[in-house]
Amino acid sequence: METTLIATYKNRTLLLDKDLPLKPKTKVKVIIDLPSKNEKKSFLEQAVELDFDAPSDWSQKVDEYLYGVE
Question: b vs e for 7-23, b when ≥16 Cβ sit within 10 Å of the residue's Cβ?
Fold first, then answer.
């Protein structure tokens, strides 16, 4: 069986975008296809790669966090 999926490399770990239907200890073959240097990414893709740590209520209290205004 061959399946194509997307993963992000972070801290020596590949983080898969979705779960795989595999039993524990199943061995798999991994082939890495690196993106070309000219490949353009969307703003959202670039923002996700920043791994920005923000409070969970960021979108509700953006002015408070950015400007100190309540």
Answer: eeeeeeeeeeeeeeeee
> For residue 32, which of 18, 50, 14 has the smallest C-alpha distance?
14
User: How much is the pTM?
Assistant: 0.42
Q: How far apart are the first and last CA of the chain?
A: 55
CA angle in degrees (0–180, nearest 5) for 46-5-27? 130
At position 53, the amino acid (one-letter code) is: D
Question: Band of the pLDDT at 26, cuts 50, 70, 90?
Answer: very high
Domain of 60? 39-70
d(CA 5, CA 16): 7
Q: Is residue 15 part of a domain?
A: no
